[in-house]
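User: We ran a pulldown and think these components assemble together. Before we commit to crystallization trials, I'd like a predicted model of the whole complex to look at. Sequences follow.
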Amino acid sequence: MFEISALNQRNKKVERLFRTLFLMMVLLLVLPVIVILATLIIKGGPIISFEFLFTSPTDGMTAGGILPALIGTVWLVSVALLVSVPLGVAAAVYLNEYAGNNWFTRVINLAIINLAGVPSIVHALFGVGAFVIFFKFGTSILAASLTLAIMTLPVVIVATRESLAAVPMAFREACWNMGATRWQTIRRVVLPNAVSGILTGVILEVSRTAGETAPIMFTGAAFFLPYLPESIFDQTMALSLHLFVVSTQVPGVPEALPYGVALVLVTMVLIMNSLSIAFRVYLRGKKKW
Amino acid sequence: MSKHQELNCAIQTEGLNLWYGTFQALFDVNLNIRNGRITSLIGPSGCGKSTFLRSVNRINERLGYVRINGSIKVHEQNIYAPSVELLQVRKQVGMVFQRPNPLPLPIRDNVLFGHRIHNRAESSSRAEEDEIVEQALRQVLLWDKVKDKLKRKATELSLEEQQKLCIARLLPVKPRVLLMDEPCSALDPKGTEAVEELIWELSGQYTILIVTHNMAQARRASEECIFMLMGKVVEHGATDELFLAPREQQTADYIEGRFG
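Assistant: Here's a predicted model for the assembly, 549 residues in total across the polymer chains.
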């Protein structure tokens, strides 16, 4: 009565086949990541040293370290975040908590989706036109960061809206029915419960920002600067652009150098991402409803 | 109803009609709900009892497509008058939901939530706040159970305790009316009993309007009872009379379980 039938056997065979197939696809996906990381570590690892991280490039960028680029990337990312996070969070709060479902909101949503789809080189040209020329910021950290900020705004808005939407409606209802205003509800209940999601979204976005090259190329990142930026009105080197430069624009660069730069950039991003994941796990553990 | 009784009414409606879009949910509702009493609203699903309840603190209108005519007076004031501040209506007319909905905050902050949003931040000292918390929790018979864990999240409490907490957090702003939308339907029999006991405890101090599916509960836990059917009020009277000697045939059919 419970013996296996021929049809059972066939079905189980098909089952195994598909299982294996899907598993292969997953492995295929992970493969490039592993190859990239392995290559970077093997080829770029040996060049990483205290000196590499903390001195300026020398000998026409064929030797020395990457300090100005490293610091520059930190500057660019920080200023970009300072602009895009408040703007993006505020916009998301409006869209999710105040705006009704009407044509205006739909137009805004469409605009945000389209902004996310604009190629980065177009953002770069916009940045040149708007910030470098029109606002007369010149090629500077400010102009480059603003360009990055505009580029990453859609990500902040979408991540924030998602975490706001994840806060159960019942909490808002409870507040409104006690006579709380929208803002009181947002400040006391919605935001505190959405903050973990917002922060993770923000940190993930940092990694994108750190790697962008096109938007900063014309707006503030320099080919080579022997000194560190002193204010947001200075130009700066950046890791992403430096990688491009030492890989393609400068003759006589030792092979390990570009790999080293790439390794530093990728490590920076990975550290950020791991922090964001750890943070999310931590906050999730604290959250109970 | 005589003049004397009218003065003693907390909620009075006149010619109340309500539409959701084109669907009319309430038809010419005229009710006088007595001050300081527990009044239950019974009737089959979709009869308009919850709709009526939700129009007494104007939370229906959030849906956007709700239209109302006629009037609802709470303590002699039409709450749909243009000069009325919605936030005050919500403060004076508290609401308890079917599903306990404590905020994801410590118990203490839950109790103080209403108080804090309706008062300036600096206005009460820590000691005053402690006093408010204790008083509200004592009123809902929860103080002894939670006094040592006021800093714990409210969502860790049992459903019965959560529901009591949801009632407690309405009290510090001194509402005139408490609306309860099937407050016990998410609770087990023991929890139900405890919350009903609490409702009796609160009667006299507040006018309580309670919607229930459970006729036994209406009978146990209310002094007056309103039976609604298809958006209309069929009968309104003292609970004992309505259950023992209903005036209308429809009421009799419903309470004897012939439909609904």
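The beta strands of chain B are 9-20, 23-34, 38-42, 66-74, 77-78, 93-96, 177-181, 207-211, 224-229, 232-238. That may be worth checking against your pulldown data before setting up trials.

User: Thanks, that helps.
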